[in-house]
Amino acid sequence: MSQFNGAAAAPGRRTDPFLLLAVPALCLLGMLFVLPIVFLLVKSFRDTTGNLSIATYVAFFSDPFMLTALRRTIVVAIETTLLTLLLGYPTAFALARARGFTQTIILIAMILPLSVGVIVKAFAWSIVFRTDGVINKTLLGLGIIDQPLRLLFTETALVIGATNIFLPFMVLPIYAVIRQTDPNLRSAAATLGAGPLFCFFRVTLPLTLPGIVAGAAFVFSMAVAMYVIPNLIIGERTQTLSMLIARSFLYLRNEQMGSTISTILLAIAAFIVIVSSVILKRLSGRQA
Amino acid sequence: MYLDVKGIIKSYRDNTVLDGLDFSVARGELVSLLGPSGCGKTTLLRMIAGLVTADHGTIRLAERDVTGLPAHKRNVSVVFQNYALFPHLNVSENVGFGLAARGVSKAEQRTPVEEALALVRMEQFADRPISALSGGQQQRVAVARALVVAPDLLLLDEPFSALDRKLRETMQVELKALLRSRGITAVFVTHDQEEALAVSDRIAVMNRGRIEQYGGPMELYSRPATSFVLDFVGMSTRIAGTVKKVEGRSLLISTAYGEVTAPGNFIQGAKVLLGVRPEHLDPVPGAAGSNSITVALSDVMCLGAKTLVHATASGADRIICEQSGAAQQGLPSTGEPVTLSWNVEQTLVYPAEGVQ
Which pLDDT belongs to residue A4? Predict the structure, then answer.
């Protein structure tokens, strides 16, 4: 009897054949992404003789230089995320509000830079920020400053450069959410007596929060792992985690340390992605 | 008047949406703006709510000029066509929104919110999310949300269009009774003439950014001011003709079905449109003082309490006769010739379309 019941329940649990469509992509991800990460994880716990060891983890967390780099990496990623949000949120509204030609122009302005390599953009920024770059020449020419400002090798320059490059990843998810929200909701709030500020904090912001969370997760996880941009903008003098990884693998030939830092970086990014998807689920659960 | 809209002009680029429109509503009155899509009725509603600005003209509400006032300072509530309930708030939070916007604390919101929900019989749904409600329940919540702030004026934009026919009729009766009992002044926007006739004291029939006629349901039906109102409100026989002879107030008009007589003020040779309401037509030869035409029946439709008889007409003309009660028996069948007659006094005459 119980067997019979089990058989009757089976059709409900049958896999959706459409899931098979994702198999090729999953295979590719599995081979080129998951496997290397597993290797990396294993490697981070093995010393040169192949014995199990957590020496590099201990070394990492007791080395002030490493910890400074960790702190800097996280601070830069947070600042970049906040700045992209500050600039991207209004842009997303402008994009959603614009019609026809104007909208196309803004969309192209958002998407086209993605097809220009990161190196080209980061290099362009390094030209702008140089001591004899556009900014300094303009400020000197206008007499606002006497001495050229040191911009290029600063964290500020890094945050500004990274913001420029990651902006579309903040704007597009927010824009997608705004497009789905009913413009009548803001009208309804106004007719119920809500002024612009009340309307923003009680209606617009909560409704666009899923877009903000998704955009912030994108930008943070990319900013925490960026390598080319800091390399070109702040150079070797101030290090971030990804630059330390490259240094460990390429110059110091310390594969265990390189794998260790990679694992730590991955853990940070994974934490952010998991937290944000939990938040997103909560938010959509409230509205579903 | 309680609501006074004067000389409103509104254009978008070259498109004039409202063209020097005047409109007024007395306190406690239920009024409908009725018209086809694109006639400007929704723009007028949004303008009264403060969501759209006028190029010219003034709007006065409850003794004050609100023309330049933004929506959130007007105290005019709106029930939107799609209800526009906040998806991130539950039922009682939605209803309490207007109070919260007015600075009423959470604790002080409770009683009025509960009362408003009781008014629309939704008390037991207070903690539900909006997505768990049916269309009719969402409408009730939208009405409660609009009424809880004690608005000076309630505007409703096609409030019944998302409901199925049966529910729509129930909600119309219910909402009308509720607004009456609370003494609410309300303006409905609708393209559905039956809805307008059902819910309102007066109806403003709109066409091309103007009000063609503003009056009670009976007045609109029996004395349509223009051929547009004749066509838009209720069914009618419409026959094109030319004035052949004028004798005082009596016109002799030649049509594709013979000559007919009608009361009116037109010059000889004027192109006119004749209108007769279907229940005024009789499928029997008329006596003296009647017009008679003989046409072929094209369709006989029995609708239960009444039967509609359509006749073959030429050009843009339409001939339709309505019989009810015992007269529904023994009607000629489709294809047979029939003589239709009506009282001369029941003939409405309008200038033909395009000729003023």
Answer: 42
Among candidate residues B188, B92, B208, B192, the one with its CA nearest the CA of residue B140: B92
Each residue's pLDDT tens digit, B62-87: 989 999 899 999 999 999 999 999 99
Over residues A9-41, the pLDDT tens digits come to 444 556 778 888 888 888 998 888 888 888 888
Kindly report the nearest CA distance between residue B74 and chain A, in angstroms: 8
d(CA B95, CA B149): 9
Task: Choose the final residue of a domain: B184, B206, B230.
Answer: B230
Indicate yes or no: CB of A192 within 8 angstroms of CB of B131. no
Query: Token pair 């400020």 is at which residue?
Result: A139
Using the 3D structure, point to which of B195, B230, B265 is the last residue of a domain. Answer: B230
Contacts of B4 (CB under 8 A, 6+ apart): B24, B58, B59, B60, B61
Determine, for residues B77 and A192 on separate chains, whether the beta-carbon distance falls below 8 Å: yes
Distance CA B152, CA B15 (A): 31
Task: Tell me which residue of A225, A218, A223, A212 sits closest to A273, measured CA to CA.
Answer: A218
With an 8 Å Cβ cutoff, are A193 and B101 in contact?
yes
Average pLDDT of the residues of chain B: 90
Inside any domain, residue A31: no
Q: What domain count does chain B have?
A: 2
Residue to substitute from A191, A201, A213, A279, interface B, most B β-carbons within 10 A: A191
ipTM score over 0.85, yes or no: no
